[in-house]
Amino acid sequence: YVPVKGDHVIGIVTAKSGDIFKVDVGGSEPASLSYLAFEGATKRNRPNVQVMIGNFGFKKGKTSKYSEGYLNGSSCCFSSGTGVTLYHFIKISFSFLFLTRLLAPDCEILQEVGKLYPLEIVFGMNGRIWVKAKTIQQTLILANILEACEHMTADQRKQIFSRLAES
Amino acid sequence: MKETPLSNCERRFLLRAIEERKRLDGRQTYDYRSIRISFGTDYGCCVVELGKTRVLGQVSCELVSPKLNRATEGILFFNLELSQMAAPAFEPGRQSDLLVKLNRLLERCLRNSKCIDTESLCVVAGEKVWQIRVDLHLLNHDGNIIDAASIAAIVALCHFRRPDVSVQGDEVTLYTPEERDPVPLSIHHMPICVSFAFFQQGTFLLVDPSEREERVMDGLLVIAVNKHREICTIQSSGGIMLLNEQVLRCSKIAGVKVAEITELIQKALENDQKVRKEGGKFGFAESIAKQRITAFRMEKAPVDTSDVEEKAEEVLAAADPPPDLLSVSKPVLWTPGTAQIGEGVENSWGDLEDSEKEDEDEGGSDEAIILDGVRTDVGMEVSNTGSQEAPIVLSDSEEEETIILEPDKNPKKTRTQTISAKQEKAPSTTPVKKRRKKRTAN
Q1: Distance CA B163, CA A92 (A)
Q2: ipTM of model
Q3: What tens digit of pLDDT does each residue of B230-254 get?
Q4: Which of A137, A161, A166 to mutate to test the interface with B (most CBs of B within 10 A)?
Q5: What CATH number is associated with residue B156?
Q6: In 3-state terms, what secondary structure has residue B192?
Q7: Cα distance from A32 to chain B (closest Cα, Å)?
Q8: Which residues form the domain of B46?
Q9: Hey, which residues does B252 pair with through a beta bridge?
Q10: All domains of chain A, ordered by start, with CATH?
Q11: Mutating which of A51, A100, A108, A120 best tests the B interface, going by the most B Cβ atoms within 10 A?
Q12: Which pLDDT tens digit goes with each residue over B71-104?
């Protein structure tokens, strides 16, 4: 992944150093995310990133061309400041092409998937997708469907979705 | 390259899924991934695919003088290499621990079990013996390298034919393949490694862990068994405490699995033998051509909330034989439509991408106006084309000078207008410039 200014990415917090978190976004260097970028964080009240190494947050990337990425966590960062523990989700890696297809305004795949179960999806332009559904089984199904849909035509997709809807 | 760290939430998810007896790809706890064996044109060359993990094995032989303390035995040499294309984390100098461990395990499994009769490799005692060299290359790492490697090694050895030799008194004649058919090695039995991954301090067990599962596992138990249920090697790593009944249970499971795998191997070898005899086409060119189509095929997907597994592949490949996924002579039975689609999709995606870009262009202006809060997922306007050329440095003044045009007219306009060296840029950059202009305008 090549970091680009203005990209939304999903990163994994790997280290604390000074006033910032080091976040891995899949680029050549880790990006930095300041403590203050979290909701309700002040200099005194530091965000409680509960399990430090390896958590991830959803951030708006603001990377300058030359230096390492600087992330502006202006969009929500969950799992840290709010202290919410996350269940039933999975992070998958995807090819960039597929991501752009999914993010196109009238993505059929997403609409059809949305009809199946209530779910939350977060797309990161660094090729990572975060999926959450009510139960683990559903999340697994979603993850597999998304992976499979990459290489399927619309007809095949419809078949699969109709079979799922029946069962 | 560094490995992507495994995020805690993923780890938690995987462990919870395992507690509920669910695996990422929908397998049961004791299920293996599908094993595919294909052979090359040379004897002794094979590729084994265990799910997405791929190992290439090649056997070669050479006449050398024997070791001093074993004058009547041939020499066996095993070498497993983790190619850099297998995983981003594998670098020339870096994977030494894993490499050493795998190599040692493989050697113990194949050499110490005496599966190959080394006495038969002797040509002239004390002077000339065959040195058999098995080279294994890991082409793709998706978990469970050791199983795939052991299967590849044993298949390659079974497939290999060495040149025929005859000794008359003091004369040794080495026949070329044209003069006399090459001779297979004498193999007593086929030991195959089966890996068991343990989680939560030995409470949960999985056979054939995939890469994700390997990352979160507590420990690994590898048992090498042959089809006569003789244990050839057993190794436990990770420092987990196992009860003896667990180990016994694992060995029983391993016995069952190895019987199935050995059957598969025999079938594959027979098929290849048949094809070669009948003079049909064999080798990688044949099997890989078919594999390319199947490369887009997804394996089983766990579907359905009521614990009934549906297979996505049933939709894709209606007439595909599921259990024995062999090579060469068993063609993948695609309905003509899907085979076409497999390759047709590739092309049309190229078009889709272009047309999508242009759609995004048109839609980009509207999206810039709409506030970010409306869309809960990632805004795409800046994403697609913006990432394609990161180092665009357009000063604001230049942007405001460009005029909104139809996308296909842009190339001409920007070439005349832009002052800096943007003229060399490909036409595909122009939609970006248009978009940036809109953003600054808002």
Answers
A1: 50
A2: 0.79
A3: 999 999 988 788 888 999 999 999 9
A4: A137
A5: 3.30.230.70
A6: strand
A7: 16
A8: 34-282
A9: none
A10: 7-84 (2.40.50.140), 92-166 (3.30.1370.10)
A11: A100
A12: 899 999 999 999 888 888 888 776 688 899 999 9
